[in-house]
Amino acid sequence: MPKSQLRANFAARLIQARQMRGFSQRSLGDKMGMGKERGAVRINRYEHEVTAIGFESLQKMAETLEVPVSYLLADDARMADAILALSHADASQMDLLADLIPVLVENPALLSRLMKVAQLPRREQASALKSLTEKA
């Protein structure tokens, strides 16, 4: 029976988030309230795609790992990284980014120019952004 891609993605994100927080399987399970032994077994089964996680456990896991639920369910690593980065924005930044992302997706040339600015040393970014806005 082929394994679910969703389970594989979840397992990869779980391992990444757990390691990012410096948790062992045992400590994560314990922090989620499952106890050390039972929790270690359960987390191991999630990571090896043996057991699917329920919604309540998924929510508790995301809270314990301090990541959005959507991060744990992201389709791939790039999407997960973007979700994690967005989760650090405050409400006003989130509103601006929600408006900006579709504009950038629809305008690859603008996105390319912004990426070039982002790759500059920080001290050069302000003048490059100013130059970019004068061209628009």
**Biggest pleated sheet:** none
DSSP summary: helix tally: 9
Name of the top-level CATH class of the largest domain: Mainly Alpha
Q: Any idea what the CATH architecture of the largest domain is?
A: Orthogonal Bundle
Domain HTH cro/C1-type: 14-72
Protein name: Helix-turn-helix domain-containing protein
InterPro entries: Cro/C1-type_HTH, Lambda_DNA-bd_dom_sf
GO molecular function: DNA binding
Labels describing this entry:
mainly alpha, 136 residues, 434 Repressor (Amino-terminal Domain), 74% helix, 2 domains
Could you outline the blueprint of secondary structure elements for this entry?
Layout: H1 5-20, H2 25-31, H3 36-47, H4 55-65, H5 69-72, H6 77-86, H7 91-106, H8 108-118, H9 122-135
Helix pairs in contact: 2-3, 8-9
Q: Overview of this structure, please?
A:
With 136 residues, this protein is an all-alpha fold. The protein has 2 domains: 79 residues, lambda repressor-like DNA-binding domains (434 Repressor (Amino-terminal Domain), Orthogonal Bundle); 47 residues, no CATH class. The protein has 9 helices and no strands. The radius of gyration is 19 Å and the shape is elongated. The model has no long low-confidence stretch (mean pLDDT 92).
Give a short overview:
The chain is 74% helix and 0% strand. It is an all-alpha fold and 136 residues long. Residues 14-72 form the HTH cro/C1-type domain.
